[in-house]
Design brief:
With 237 residues, this protein is mainly alpha-helical. The chain contains ten helices and two strands, in the order H-H-H-H-H-H-H-H-H-E-E-H. Strands 1-2 form a two-stranded antiparallel ribbon. The longest helix has 25 residues. The chain starts with a helix and ends with a helix.
């Protein structure tokens, strides 16, 4: 009796929260209702004896996926006024889709009945002396390990494809050339400046950054002109 009441309570909250996910005008509220729906679905899994699925739903979907949705929605700059503008225009199409889905569900439920040998023809029966988690682990990692690994490889290829499609070289990133950096010498990037007496500390053999060609040429011209002035002044004296 208590299990039946708990089932109906969790199921009612699950349906209500699922309806609020698609009908809420605020996307942040929709994500919060989605988290509530996940919690109630995990409670239903616990009542059904599938504790591993319940914990997976809480840890993976509530702890990672729904939180990621929440952060993404909160970071987006959504114009709610523009979002509501097309609601009335597409309302007849949405109602038509709802009517078709309800008709299909009614046809399925109307023609469904439990076969008497269905319990004996289950694909993977659970042994009475082991838990649901152990049976699920044996089923995935023993009987269907190749299919499980193949599905993991498909997801990996899909992830790499999404990264390749979104990662474009726009020419704005600066990349390091490690070989050029390790092969360079001080003479490639530095120059020893022989300064005049009293003009600096170049006489100590300090390395200075090598100037561009234009700056170096201007510096040489200024240095030659300065020496010419001193030469003329010395000849006058």
């Amino acid at each position: 009796m208590i299990a039946a009441l708990a089932f109906y309570a969790f199921a009612a909250v699950l349906l209500a929260s699922a309806a609020m996910v698609v009908s809420s005008r605020n996307p942040v509220h929709s994500v919060l209702f989605l988290i509530l729906a996940f919690f109630n679905a995990s409670a239903l899994f616990v009542l059904a004896g599938a504790e591993f699925l319940a914990m997976t739903l809480v840890i993976v979907y509530v702890g990672a996926v729904a939180v990621l949705f929440l952060f993404v929605v909160m970071m987006l700059d959504i114009n709610f006024v523009q979002l509501r503008e097309g609601f009335q225009r597409y309302l007849p199409v949405g109602l038509a889709v709802v009517v078709v889905l309800l008709a299909e569900l009614a046809m399925v439920l109307g023609g469904w009945k439990m076969a008497p040998e269905a319990m004996n023809l289950r694909f993977a029966p659970i042994a009475a002396n082991t838990s649901n988690t152990v049976q699920l682990g044996k089923l995935i990692y023993t009987d269907y390990i190749l299919i499980f690994q193949a599905s993991g490889m498909i997801l990996l290829v899909a992830m790499i494809g999404a990264i390749v499609l979104t990662l474009r070289d726009r020419g704005l990133t600066r990349k390091q050339n490690i070989n050029a950096q390790t092969r360079r010498t001080p003479a490639d990037t530095l120059v020893l400046v022989d300064a005049r007496s009293g003009a600096g500390i170049g006489e100590l053999g300090i390395y200075r950054p090598k100037a561009p060609e234009s700056v170096a040429a201007a510096h040489d011209e200024h240095h030659d002109a300065h020496h010419g002035d001193h030469s003329s002044a010395g000849g006058h004296h």
